[in-house]
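QUALITY CONTROL LOG
STEP: pairwise intake check
CHECKER ROLE: data steward
CRITERIA: each record must contain a sequence immediately followed by its structure tokens, with no blank fields

ENTRY 1 OF 2
RESULT FIELD BELOW
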Amino acid sequence: MLSKTPSMISKARIKWIKSLEIRKYRQQYKAFVAEGPKLVEELLPYSTPLCIVATQDWLNQNEQIKAAEIYAVNQEELKRISLLRTPQNVLTVMPIPDRKLDLSALQGRLVIALDGVQDPGNIGTILRTADWFGIKHVLCSEGTVDVYNPKCVQSCMGALARVEVHYCHLPEVLSKVQMPIYGTFLDGKDIYAEELHAEGIIVMGNEGNGISAQIAEMINRRLYVPNFPKGSLTTESLNVAVTTGIVCAEFRRRLQS
């Protein structure tokens, strides 16, 4: 049986859920929206929802579910509440975890730092990449898009539950860590020929402008992902999420060789 009997959802509760599409309200209520059976099922083992809005069929198939509030709705009602164009049977409001950045926890680990990355889809892909390669910490500059943006939440799937994301003043953090700081540049050294370490911070920059000048000065390992064949005429640059995947794969491959 459900831990709480489903009830009808009020207009005030719908307004609250819809407000979470905006960052300032996510910060105010310390909550975000996650939608769809697959995403919700990935998040549930790690956190108890503040609110679940779902069809009766979904609730019947998930009778052990626990939440402070549970609402049963039909598809038309869900469509009015959902932040997606096509609702997927269940919507949850999840608490944003209250995590404190402990610099000592970064030592001995591979860490990703995002310097002004703006596209929610890129952030989502980078978080999934971090999750896949066992990278537990992602640092975000204050100018990086909110990872709890609905588009980011949907694209990163359950990675948000397993990867700790910290918003911080990135220059200050980088100045305090005692580990290699990597970054990708068009004038960097071939990543496949350079020595890579099991610990370090990999900085990825803004989609249009790359790594900011202030952060670039703090990077002591400048890398480059060469095209193939080397020196041939190709596209100007790689997407930041694609580059992150290539770089992380090469770091992890070295550990296994």
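ENTRY 2 OF 2
RESULT FIELD BELOW
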Amino acid sequence: MIEINGDKCHSTLMKKITPSLAYNESADYEEWKAQIEAKLRELTGIDLIEENACEPQLTIEEDIHMDGYRRIRFVFYSEIDAMVPCYLLIPDTNEEKYPLMITLQGHTSGMHISLGLEKYPGDEVYSTNSAFALQAVKNGFASLCIEQRSMGERKPLNPADRGHNCCYQAHNAFMLGRTTIGERAWDVSRALDLMTEFAQIDTERVAITGNSGGGTASFYAACLDKRIKASIPSCSFCPYTASIMAMLHCGCNYIPGAFRYFDMEDLTCLIAPRKLLVVNGEKDDIFLFEGTKRAFETVKKIYAREGAENNCKLVATPEGHMWVPEIVWPAIDEFIKL
């Protein structure tokens, strides 16, 4: 019997295709960069999302003093019927202004993990290493936790969702000409708009980080919002063919049609010359480190074109697909000067 390989057609196409907007040293750089930005906005559906924007209706739900920081919970609307819960943590060190670190959880049970809280069975696996917001406060930042779409308090209510919580909403976004990546980046930008309401936040010094799905959103949000001065994606920056096209991933990672035009490393032109600190585990089995290293060679070329060779850096951890605070925060402290 003839052996049938259901993946072969796509695998062959992946090997044949060179994305039409892949970085080319001989191309006009500024023209190419403008084409990349326009195509990313088109494919992520950002313009469609913006058409559905509304007044934020900011509501403070909690403002309490914790051990060493002030914790503010608030909600707002990033677009019609899209309510976004957030926590803002401000250190108790009497500084007039604090740099802001936006911290995004990946596929955990929600943003409460960033606060070191355990609400559900299994949270203990994440609550120490992945308490991004508490770690940011200890390192001198105010921290903004944003509940990402399809996660935590924003998980879908539809009982028919049989995969990751994100899949049902991600697939509907595709049908509407949107993407979850675009929606999450939009939520970050709208939350950043509101930081002017908090006097102790220095909106000129903003960085963003997260692991896995949080790292993915950290990267794309920085591509789409130039107010973010530094992006620190962890276990998420990798060529598509060595990550989301190499194995099964959940729907929120995908931008339909993207590989016809660009790969992930090409998009770093939209962050350069701002700081980019890429973190990846050498044993990561879903965002393969060899791919990340290969992609970072293109990143270095792009940053050189911007005259900012020293503004990009790759940091390897000896672990797998996980946040490693004892490596990440010293790297941030050394490299990200806000």
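INTAKE CHECK: passed for both entries
DESCRIPTIVE NOTE, ENTRY 2: The mean pLDDT is 95.
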